[in-house]
Design brief:
The complex is a heterodimer of chains A (285) and B (687). Chain A has 285 residues and is mainly beta. Chain A has 1 helix and 22 strands. In chain A, the strands form 4 sheets. In chain A, strands 13, 14, 15, 16, 17, 18, 19, 20, 21 and 22 form a 10-stranded antiparallel beta sheet that branches. In chain A, strands 1, 2, 4, 5, 8 and 9 form a 6-stranded antiparallel beta sheet that branches. In chain A, strands 7-6-10-11 form a 4-stranded antiparallel beta sheet, with no helix packed on it. Chain A is globular, with a radius of gyration of 21 Å. The two termini of chain A are 37 Å apart. Chain B is mainly beta. Helix content of chain B is 7%, strand content 56%. Chain B contains 5 helices and 34 strands. In chain B, the strands form 4 sheets. Chain B has a 22-stranded antiparallel barrel. A 6-stranded mixed beta sheet of chain B has the order 1-2-7-8-5-6, with no helix packed on it. In chain B, a hairpin with a 3-residue loop joins strand 10 (189-199) and strand 11 (203-214). Chain B is globular and about 70 Å long. Chain B starts with a helix and ends with a strand. The chains are: A mainly beta (285), B mainly beta (687). The interface between A and B is medium-sized, with 23 and 29 residues.
Chain lengths: 285, 687
């Protein structure tokens, strides 16, 4: 086993060395650029395999980081700089709709990998399901493939995305991006906000703000100090703030969404009488 | 057991009438007549020739048969012995492990040591003061030094308590054994203990073991105090070997374990409190030049403390709260006597690791447990130099002492460091402090007058809880406490004086001390913080108060009525205020005690009264209320019998004779003290 690995590494390295001298379009063949991620699904079509990787081993409701590469089934090599676009669609009983997603861009680290994110608002079930249509171009020829995927609720059942109609009668999707591994510390909290322009269009909403009030319902709504509300960071293209967690366990992050004029679109203050906001995320660790 | 239950009933009937004819007035009448207060009899000046120190020494060991009569209550807990000191009060959270206070100051302001060894409790809620990890069976005396006079064993503000281990110390006593047993009716406490010692000029081996088990105690009026039971045993061994005529190796080991300890004043009990205390020492009569009495010691101790709430009904949330404290230390000291000077040089150091955690189990079984570090693995490295000189100034004595200490504290656990950085984002992992103490004490005699005056300065670093505590719940004021690692050192300027007049059978002593403490460390409410403990009122953060003042004064009288009959009385006053004139919490009201003691070679008897005035100067912000005045009376009788060469000693007594229901200012959440209690102890000493 070890010798095989060594041989593979040697081959990969020598390929890599020769690749460096050639033009940019040559595939960067490293040991395995996606070794630390989980292969969630593989789509076989047109003599190619589209490999979908993520941080977790399944697509779940909420924010999913996705890494994709296309393998040429003929020689098991990966295409460099593939141009891929995608369209996830949920097929419900009465209608179809899409969800917020990013463009797929070639990874900075490896030109055989494209990366992006997708935010599923709902999990699939026996009658309703998600599929993703990938359109990609290789060697001047355009291909398309549609694959049904499983989207489940997170294993801990905790809500990391909220889909709601704001006071301005606009439907929003608000997803927590980080922390994915919360700690008893001051955590960086990142979020993305989209509005539902149509069933198939979810543009990013900028320059709103999100008030944050983390609580532990199991501890009589204990809160933590030194949290920072989320504001829009135009360089990172997302909302960032600080989340203090004083202990492990179940936390409810009560939220309030404010527009650029400071008007509350959704969510309420947590008070003695009002235990939680109608807009929230959850964490348990 | 039944006999004592019956005895209690009989006494209740007998006393019933007296209770209705107010017992208080009887007590007062007892004071007006001269009585000797037995407990105070234990407190003796340390040295009858040079009395520069105002140390009190409480005799604990009953090694010599002659000492038995000095003990008002042999086999009682160490806590009761310490309480007999004039300056010491004990904070009670139950029947076990009382926390000693000195000059109305608490653990963090005191230096409490065992044979000079530093030990730190492992409980974040002070449920295991160091004094709970030794037992009277292995101690000879307790030295109580007030203020900076206690800086010999470590930095302190309020003073020091050093518990001296009992050892045969190469005396030519051969094989000695002792069996002892005691019973107390109130909480049906059984005590069984034994000692076996062998000593000669070349080596000695001392061993002892003691076991105590007590049920719930009953307060006055037969009110049962639930969760006040405890069980503990203590084993100790000590050995010495003379390598040469003037060189000796001495090793000691103490194992102490208590289980199922109830803390009726708290919301949690303790399932296990265990300490192992070990040391090895080297002693040499001469070092070099005129340096003599060179003593060095290496020591190690480890403390484990596990809180338990599984037996309590109505627990808001079940939690586990274990804590650990390990200390490694050393000291080396030598004396130099040169004409009028009498120097003591001491170098010491210790390294302590304090770690405590809390895991709470949500009522919803599907939720994950909640975990936090309440003491984030704080590593304290402390090293210091102590020098004292006792100067003979032709007719008066002057003692000068100084201690310089370097202390570093480091948060070793990343989880804990990140937790604290929620509150203090800029907090450094490690902090070094320089601590200093300097004191001068002068003693002059104009017979029959003695006059002592002292002036000193000292500071201290915040304790682990004050610096690094994370949501430590204080059930007294119902607040969670958060430490602050950036606290300034607390500094104390102290003045003390003592005047005594002594003529034949009469002795009168007036004593006072005053502490002006700047950067006084105390918890202040931070209204912006959210409570962690369910039901708590708020969160306090330790802060430096601009200053606080403490004043203690006492008046003491002794009179030898007859050859064997002595009378003793003491009255004390205490006051503590902060910079805004507010009362400091836990300040004693006026307290008094008086007693009559009869001693001859084989028979002893004592009658004593003690009490307090109403606690008018209390602080409701710390959960205090006006504690009512009380007076309690007790009586003891003892006799020594000789059986061949052996000795049997019997002591019987009744405490709180009138079954008064009372609590003192140091009783956590006004938990009542023990009601009427009969005790009987029996000691068989094989010589």
């Amino acid at each position: 086993m070890k010798t095989i690995k060594l041989v593979l590494i040697t081959i990969a390295l020598s390929l890599g060395l020769t690749a460096c001298t050639s033009e940019d379009d040559a595939p960067q063949m490293e040991v395995d650029p996606l070794a630390e991620y989980n292969l969630v699904t593989q789509v076989d079509a047109n003599g190619h395999s589209l490999e979908l990787y993520s941080d977790t081993d399944a697509f779940t409701t909420g924010y999913n980081k996705v890494y994709i590469r296309i393998k040429d089934d003929a020689d098991n090599s990966y295409f460099a700089n593939p141009e891929i676009s995608w369209m996830p669609v949920m097929h419900m009983e009465s209608m179809n709709h899409s969800c917020p997603k990013s463009e797929l861009r070639t990874s900075q680290e490896n030109n055989t990998v494209v990366e992006g994110y997708v935010i599923f608002q709902l999990a699939g079930n026996t009658d309703e399901y998600w599929d993703i249509t990938f359109t990609y171009e290789l060697g001047g020829q355009e291909y398309a493939v549609t694959e049904t995927i499983d989207v489940t609720a997170p294993l801990d059942g905790k809500q990391r995305v909220a889909s709601f109609v704001g006071a301005d009668n606009v439907r929003y999707v608000l997803a927590m991006v980080a922390p994915s591994e919360p700690e008893v510390a001051v955590n960086d909290i990142h979020a993305l906000l989209f509005k539902m322009e149509s069933m198939m269009s979810f543009p990013l909403v900028e320059n709103y703000s999100i008030d944050l009030d983390p609580r532990m319902p199991g501890m009589a709504n204990h809160s933590s100090p030194n949290n920072e509300d989320l504001t829009y960071d135009s360089s990172a293209h997302m909302y960032t703030g600080k989340l203090s967690l004083t202990m492990t366990g179940y936390w409810k992050l009560n939220l309030k969404l404010l527009n650029t004029d400071g008007e509350v679109l959704k969510g309420e203050d947590v008070t003695e009488e009002n235990e939680a906001s109608s807009l929230f995320w959850e964490l348990e660790f | 057991m039944k006999i004592f239950r019956h005895a209690r009933i009989v006494c209740n009937i007998l006393m019933g009438k007296i209770i209705y004819s107010p017992s208080w007035s009887i007590c007062v009448a007892l004071i007006l007549f001269p009585f000797y207060m037995g407990a105070q009899e234990l407190v003796m000046p340390q040295d009858s020739i040079i009395r520069v120190n105002l140390d009190e020494v409480i005799l604990i060991s009953a090694r010599k048969t002659l000492d038995y009569h000095r003990q008002p209550k042999p086999l009682s807990a160490l806590d009761e012995y310490l309480e007999s000191s004039k300056k010491v009060d004990m904070v009670k959270r139950g029947a076990y492990a009382w926390e000693p206070t000195l000059n109305n100051m608490y653990s963090e302001r005191l230096s409490v040591t065992i044979d000079g060894m530093r030990i730190f409790g492992a409980c974040t809620d002070k449920m295991d003061p160091i004094t709970s990890y030794v037992d009277v069976s292995n101690l000879s005396k307790a030295h109580i030094a007030s203020g900076q006079q206690g800086s010999e064993h470590g930095t302190t503000i309020g003073g020091a308590i050093n518990l001296e281990l009992d050892k045969s110390n190469f005396s030519d006593t051969g094989l000695q054994g002792e069996l002892e047993t005691g019973f107390e009716s109130n909480n049906e406490m059984n005590v069984v203990g034994g000692q076996l010692n062998y000593s000669n000029a070349k080596y000695f081996v001392d061993t002892d073991i003691i076991y105590r088990k007590a049920g719930n105690y009953f307060a006055g009026d037969s009110e049962e105090v639930s969760f006040s039971q405890f069980e503990k045993y203590n084993f100790s061994g000590m050995g010495g070997y003379k390598i040469a005529e003037d060189k000796a190796l001495i090793a000691s080991f103490i194992f102490d374990e208590a289980r199922d300890i109830g803390y009726p004043a708290l919301t949690m009990d303790v399932s296990l409190a265990r300490a192992m205390i070990a040391s090895i020492g080297y002693e040499q009569d001469q070092l070099w030049g005129s340096l003599a009495n060179w003593k060095s010691k290496l020591y190690f101790n480890t403390v484990t403390h596990v809180m338990d709430d599984t037996k309590r009904p109505d627990v808001a949330i079940h939690m586990d709260m274990p804590g650990w404290s390990d200390t490694y230390g050393f000291f080396s000291e030598a004396q130099l006597n040169n004409g009028k000077h009498s120097f003591l040089f001491k170098l010491d150091g210790y390294y302590n690791r304090s770690y405590a955690e809390m895991t709470m189990y949500p009522n919803d079984p599907d939720e994950l447990p909640m975990f936090m570090l309440t003491w984030p693995d704080v590593r304290t490295a402390n090293t210091g130099v102590y020098v004292e000189d006792e100067l003979d100034l032709n007719g008066s004595f002057l003692k000068l002492a100084t201690r310089m200490t370097l202390q570093n504290q480091k948060v070793a656990d990343e989880f804990g460091l990140n937790s604290l950085r929620i509150f203090y984002p800029e907090m450094e992992k490690s902090k070094t402090r320089f601590l200093k103490s300097i004191s001068g004490q002068w003693h002059k005699m104009w017979m029959p007058w003695h006059f002592n005056i002292g002036l000193s300065y000292g500071d201290r670093a915040p304790s682990v809880s004050e610096g690094y505590g994370f949501y430590l719940f204080n059930s007294f004021d119902n607040h969670d406490y958060i430490g602050d690692p950036e606290l300034d050192n607390e500094k104390s300027v102290e003045a003390n004086t003592k005047i005594s007049w002594e003529k034949s059978k009469f002795k009168l002593t007036a004593e006072a001390n005053y502490f002006h403490i700047t950067d006084y460390i105390i918890g202040e409410i931070d209204p912006s913080l959210s409570v962690m403990t369910i039901g708590a009122e708020g969160v306090k953060v330790y802060q430096n108060l601009a200053y606080a003042n403490l004043f203690n004064a006492s008046l003491e009288m002794k009179y030898g009525l007859l050859q064997h009959l002595n009378w003793h009385a003491v009255l004390s006053y205490h006051r503590g205020t902060d910079n805004e004139g507010n009362n400091l919490p836990f300040m004693s009201p006026i307290s008094y005690g008086a007693g009559l003691q009869y001693n001859n070679r084989s028979i002893s008897a004592a009658l004593q009264v003690k009490g307090s005035g109403k606690q008018r100067n209390y602080n409701p912000d710390f959960g205090e209320d006006e504690t009512a005045a009380y007076t309690v009376c007790s009586i003891t009788m003892g006799k020594t019998f000789a059986i061949n060469k052996d000795a049997v000693y019997v002591k019987f007594g009744v405490e709180n004779i009138f079954d008064t229901y009372y609590s003192t200012y140091t009783d956590w959440r006004n938990i009542p003290r023990m009601g009427r209690n009969f005790f009987l102890t029996l000691t068989y000493s094989i010589n």
